[in-house]
Amino acid sequence: MKHIISPTDLTVSELNELLDLSEEIIANPRKFSDVCRGKKLATLFYEPSTRTRLSFEAAMLNLGGSVLGFSSADSSSAAKGESVADTIRVVSSYADICAIRHPKEGAPYVASLYSSIPVINAGDGGHNHPTQTFTDLLTIKNLKGRLNNLCVGFCGDLKFGRTVHSLINALARYENISFILISPEELRVPEYIRKEVLEANNIQFEETTSLENAMPKLDILYMTRVQRERFFNEEDYIRLKDIYILDEKKMAAARTDMLVLHPLPRVNEIATEVDSDPRAVYFKQAQYGVYVRMALIMKLLEIV
Ligand code: CP
């Protein structure tokens, strides 16, 4: 049985198959409308979510299956002190596959050790968010036409941003990828990403504090939110939260075919005036999340 804890749990070849299947679903969704009849997806969310939980549920419903689960730790027996290990043992007898989000890094991995159904990490603390990465890759492949020969800028909270860590890990496996890492000093990418992913694989990257200087060089700009929930100190959050705001003026310096992605939710880091720019694809990106999760559910349940 396969679990998806990290984006690199799929080989590049498996990932390409997943993206091809996602594109087949986009082209012909009716073909897949009944393939999961009788199957159940459990969504175990110990941390808030709109897109990930609802797109997982929409994905299973689109495949003709059913969903069950909880949307906060407070509404589950975690509030009474039940461990993730015990919860997944029980849920394994209620559902065929499960997506779990947890504020503690490694919790979905622990669940996978005790599970008799496939476990998908739907985001663990500041660590990984593999299905967001698959969504991002599908967005780039579908709208840009390639996953190689790209200069990708990440901007904002690169320290705690699990979507950033996951996407760097995944893109580093494609040819001729370079990164521009745009953040304040306090929110630079963690040392392990720099050493074990970027330097270990000879990936070209630069770190800067200037979004303006990076703009003209980018094929993709991946904006991120400064995450209040990851800060220990409210003063630091307030000081850093509006440090980067993408607006029309900054967009004017970008290439005409640059794409702006954002995993969402957005707070202030992208001015709403950018939403109508054809290069702003973050709402389309959220829609792609349904297709890629449909494909992933089918692959893990060995339906295709
Ligand atoms: N992108 C993302 O994970 O969004 P949610 O927190 O709303 O699930």
What does this structure look like?
By secondary structure, the chain is an alpha/beta fold. The protein folds into 2 domains: 7-129 and 289-300, 3-Layer(aba) Sandwich (Rossmann fold); 130-285, 3-Layer(aba) Sandwich (Rossmann fold). The model has no long low-confidence stretch (mean pLDDT 96). It has helices at 12-27, 51-62, 84-91, 107-114, 130-144, 162-171, 191-199, 211-214, 234-240, 248-251, 282-300; strands at 40-45, 66-70, 97-102, 119-124, 150-155, 177-182, 204-208, 220-223, 259-261. Strand 3, helix 4 and strand 4 (119-124) form a beta-alpha-beta unit. Helices cover 37% and strands 15% of the residues. The protein has 11 helices and 9 strands. It is globular. The structure holds phosphoric acid mono(formamide)ester (CP). The site of phosphoric acid mono(formamide)ester has 9 residues, from helix 2.
A few lines on this structure:
The chain has 304 residues and is of the alpha/beta class. The strands form two sheets. A five-stranded parallel beta sheet has the order 7-6-5-8-9, with helices on one face. A four-stranded parallel beta sheet has the order 2-1-3-4, with helices on both faces.
List keywords for this structure.
Rossmann fold, 37% helix, 11 helices, binds phosphoric acid mono(formamide)ester, 304 residues, alpha/beta
Set down the secondary structure blueprint:
Layout lengths: L11 H16 L12 E6 L5 H12 L3 E5 L13 H8 L5 E6 L4 H8 L4 E6 L5 H15 L5 E6 L6 H10 L5 E6 L8 H9 L4 E5 L2 H4 L5 E4 L10 H7 L7 H4 L7 E3 L20 H19 L4
Parallel strand pairs: 1-2, 1-3, 3-4, 5-6, 5-8, 6-7, 8-9
This protein binds phosphoric acid mono(formamide)ester (CP).
